[in-house]
Amino acid sequence: MLLISIQLISLSAMMAQYVPSILNLRMYDNAPFTCTIDGQNYNQANSTLRIENLNPGNHILNAYVLQWMYGGGYTQRLVYSGTIYVQASAELYATITGSNLNVDRIVALQAPANSGSWNNNNYPYNPSSNNYYGGNYHGGGHHYGNYSGHCGTPPPPTPTPVCNIPRAMNNADFNMLIINLRNASFESTMLSIAKTVLRTNYFTTQQVKSILHEFSFESTKLDFAKEAFDKTIDKNNYYTVNEEFSFSSSTIALNNYIASR
What we know:
The chain is α+β, with helices and mostly antiparallel strands. The protein has two domains: 2-146, no CATH class; 171-259. The protein has helices spanning 2-17, 171-183, 187-198, 205-214, 218-228, 248-259, and strands at residues 21-27, 33-37, 40-46, 48-54, 57-68, 74-86, 90-97, 100-108, 133-138, 143-146. The strands form two sheets. It has a six-stranded mixed beta sheet, with no helix packed on it. The chain is elongated and about 70 Å long. The model is unreliable at 11-15 and 112-163 (pLDDT under 50).
C-alpha cells in the first residue's frame, strides 16, 4: 500500500508540472489560411491561427491558403505539408514560408505553483540570456538552430507578439507618396516612383487601389497591380483592386496572374 501511495504521489506531481502546449501559426505574408493538425480541421480562415491543448511530440501539419478564383469565390491550395515537433508545456510561434516552416520562438508556459523548476537544457527558452531559440523545418524536418531573440523577455504569463510581421506604409509616408506621384510629369515616371517605393515597403489593398487611381492608362494600372500583389499584407481583399480597372480584360489578366502564383 505504501508503494502504491508513493507512486500515486509521484504521478500527481508529474501531472501538476504538465501544461498543454500551444501553437501560434501564420503565413509569412499574413495571407488568410486554414490548416489540419493530425487530421483535425481548423477551417476558420485567418491570417493567424492559435491551436491549443497540444500534446508534446511530433504532429502532422497541412496548411492551405485561400486562392481567388476567376468568376468569384475561393479555393484552398496546399502550401505546406510536414511535421512539427511540439515541446511539452510550451507555446510555439511559427511562420510558413513557401515549403518551409520556421519556428520563430518558443516560450515555456508557466506551470502551477510549487510544481518544480524548468530545465533549460530540455526547453529552448532560456530566461537568463533573454534570447529565444527556434529552428527551421525544411520539407517537414525538425532540426533546430539558434534564432537571435530581439523581442525582449516576454512578460509572463502572456508572451510578446511575434516579431518581423510586415506592416503597411504609415499614412504620413503614403500621403507623401501620392503627392510625389501627382507632381510627376509623365505616367512612366509615376510608375517608376511607385515601383521604387514598393521595393522597400508593404501596402494595404486600399493603398494599392489609391495608387492605381492616380494612373491614367489601363496598362500602367495592370502593371503595378501585378507588381504590388506580393507586397500587400491583406491579400484576402485584393480582389477589390479590380474595381480600379475600366476593362474586363484587365480583371481577367490580374486574376490569372494571381492564380499562377
